Amino acid sequence: MESHKKSFTRRDFFRNTAAAAVGTSVIGMMGGKGFSQTAAKRSARVVLTRDEQVLNAENAVNVDVLKKMLDETVTRLTGDKNPVKAWKTLFKVEDTVGLVHTNAVIKAHQELIDAVQAALVAAGIPQDKIVMAQGRDLEKVKACTALICMPTLKAHWLTGIGTVMKNYILFSGNPRNYHTENSNKLGEIWNLPFVKDKTKLVLVDALYPLCDKGPQFDPQYRWPYKGLVAGKDPVAVETVCLKIITEKRNQIKGEPWPLSPPPICVEAADKEYGLGTSKWEEIVLEKVGWTKDSLV
Amino acid sequence: MDGIRMFARVNHDRHQSHLHGGFPCALKCCLQNPPVVLFVLFFLSSALHSKENPMHLPKTVLGWTLSDQSKAVTEKAIFKYMDGAGELYIGYRFDHLDVQTYQAPNREDILVELYRMKSSDDAFGLLSLDWTGEAVSISESDIPEAGNGLFPNTRFLYGAGLLRIWSDDLYARIMTFPETTESREAVLQIGRAVVSGRKNVSAPAFLDVLPPSLPGGWNLEPEKAEFLRTYLVLNSIYFLSFSNILDLDLTCEIAAARYRFQPDTGKPASFQLFAIGYTSPGKAKKALSGFHPIYFPDVPIDPKTGITAGKPYVYPTEGKWSGYVLQGRTVLLCFEWTDRLVGETHLKAIADFVRLRAN
User: Fold this and answer.
1) Under a CB-based contact definition with an 8 Å cutoff, are residues B42 and B7 in contact?
2) Which residue of B has its CA nearest to A19?
């Protein structure tokens, strides 16, 4: 039998859940050193925008409604009421902006990608400076001065959640190294030299999410949430996404139905890699629009 | 070409003079013999057909047409095809995958994935990981497998555009998304074609280790039993550890189920059971000997006696109780009891049930 002396088990996870209330973490249990944090309390703003009309009965996107949602999201996030100016606070005209969207299986809606491109162009970014940067071609990412992380909201059968932190996995060059126990290392990809500090916006396509397993999906576990989840703090956005998935699962089963395996990448991104906050009390969640079944 | 040589051999005596006359003479002989011509044409057609259409699917279904592009995915190539999702199938005894697509103008494609497993048990296991969906009957000759309360009496589950099938050593996913009334019917018709002529095989015999009820009014949660082999799949239904702390591999058989207690008054309760069949009692004991110090590090086993077969071991775990008993080549492992005595009683009862079944 392989050596399991430091195996992270179910018991460790539940102990951590109990300990979280008193500020300890699972990272130490897994042998991580933890990211040193200042005593100052953190705060991260996340905007959740939903509109009942964005998808019709056949789940086709209403592009006009989607554009309004996007405008609302970015203006709320930046505090600038003018959408064009709001985008300009996030990106400079001289930027080369990479859109890193989910482009396999449960793909980000093309309409959302188009709307983001149009918004960037309206903000003065030339079309030829907007790059589809998802994938294994690292030269594309290296050429970008700014990134927009655009995953779809989805669970994953090996990492629990496969949304924000997992979105850059192909930049690692070896994605198989970041599943199961090693999913706690997903945060290190965000700190690669050609990725670090480039992500100016995290915009999650939560129009038609998946709440169980994935990437190979069962459509029974997709539902028209009709939302966008956005922020500058990737861990905070991931935390909100995690809550949406978890609450939907509980709703389906009528009792707690936790993600299995647990999504250890979220806390690790916070405590180990310092990418943002995974603490619900440090997240300022602004909910905009349709409120029915928001789950958060 | 082998068929042509075979047929030429059969007719050797009759046409020997023509064969000795060289290929042109042999060809002339064949062409003068209509049955030979028909046989050759049929064989060539079948060879080409099976390569493009390994399941002999219908060419058209309700306006959808079978693409002439098919794909055979081996174990080595499965990650390229489906990234990390491939681990699920590797977690069972996977042989290969045949992929075909139906297309129609202005409609979503229908994806047909035929997972060829090395045994019927493995194909069943894949279906068992999720029993939700509508149990559909898609074949007049289908004899639903009697679940006996362990699982639904069906081999076919449909939901929201996805049809999942267990047919002997085949697990199939036929999916279109989003679904329409027409696409649902098309998917079901394709499913019918997939299983046509295939034999119905019983569910894994190992599931018989699950007792239908336990002392104190506890009952098996109906129609939810699962069959699996490896730790990654186990983690997807009930996280235990990111490491393989139970020494599981493709030679193992695991029956998983929940048991529930519903009192007339008071709070209901449930616990999780994994019955793990190893290839020998020695392997089972060895696996437990490795598992115990990892999962119950605060209660070391007496090194003189080791783990005693038939003896229940129950320990507190974060507000509840977990434990195991070794019965022959089977480890019975349970989690989430709220009472130690209940746990010990259950383990003894399950062990007795397994022992009697083995005898």
Assistant:
1) no
2) B318
Chain A residue closest in CA terms to B246: A1
Closest CA in chain A for residue B289? A1
Count of other CB atoms within 10 angstroms of residue B302? 8
CA–CA min distance A105, chain B (Å) = 9
Per CB-CB distance under 8 Å, the chain B contacts of A105 are 83
Question: Do residues A241 and A163 touch, judged by C-beta distance below 8 A?
Answer: yes
Does the structure show a pLDDT above 50 at A151? yes
- Locate the domains of chain A by residue range: 43-289
CB contact A293 to B (< 8 Å): no
Which residue among A104, A220, A260 places its CB closest to the CB of B236?
A: A260
Q: Which of A2, A109, A216 to mutate to test the interface with B (most CBs of B within 10 A)?
A: A216
Mean pLDDT, rounded, for A145-158: 97
**How large is the average pLDDT for residues A44-72?**
97
> Does A58 lie at the interface with B, CB-CB under 8 angstroms?
yes
Under DSSP, the state recorded for B154 is -
Report residue B32's pLDDT band, with 50, 70 and 90 as the boundaries: low
A11·B295 Cβ contact <8 A: yes
Q: Which of B352, B65, B358, B75 is nearest to B206 (CA)?
A: B358
- State how far the Cα of A155 lies from the Cα of B274, in Å rounded to an integer: 25
As for the ipTM of the complex, it is 0.89
Q: Is the peptide bond before A256 cis (omega within 30 degrees of 0)?
A: no
pLDDT band per the 50, 70, 90 thresholds, residue B6: very low
Residue B3 tokens read as 């068929």
Do B294 and A7 lie within an 8 Å CB cutoff?
yes
**Three-state secondary structure along chain A?**
CCCCCCCCEHHHHHHHHHHHHHCCCHHHHCCCCCCCCCCCCCCEEEEEEECCCCECCCCCECHHHHHHHHHHHHHHHHCCCCHHHHHHHHCCCCCCEEEEECCCCCCCCHHHHHHHHHHHHHCCCCHHHEEECCCCCHHHHHHCCEEEEECEEEEECCCEECCCHHHHHHHHCCHHHHCHHHHHHHHHHHCCCCCCCCEEEEEEEEEEEECCCCCCCCHHHECCCCEEEEECCHHHHHHHHHHHHHHHHHHHHCCCCCCCCCCHHHHHHHHCCCCCCCCHHHEEEEEEECCCCCCC
How much is the average pLDDT of B183-190? 96
Return the residue of A nearest to B248 by Cα: A1
From chain B, pick out residues whose CB is under 8 angstroms from the CB of A11: 295, 317-318
Q: What is the pLDDT of residues A116-140, one digit of tens each?
A: 999 999 999 999 999 999 999 999 9
The shortest C-alpha distance from B85 to chain A (Å) reads: 6
CB contact under 8 A, A8 and B179: no
HEC secondary structure over B237-281: HCCCECCCCCCCCCCCEEEEEEEEECCCCCCCEEEEEEEEECCCH
Of B68, B66, B88, B65, the closest CA to residue B78 belongs to: B88
A257/B contact by beta carbon, under 8 A: no
Instruction: Answer yes or no: do B84 and A176 touch at CB < 8 A.
Output: yes
* B214 φψ region: left (φ > 0), alpha (ψ -120 to 50), beta (else): beta
A1 with B244: Cβ contact below 8 A: yes
The answer to whether the Cβ–Cβ distance between B239 and A216 falls below 8 Å is no
Contact with chain B for residue A222, Cβ under 8 A:
yes
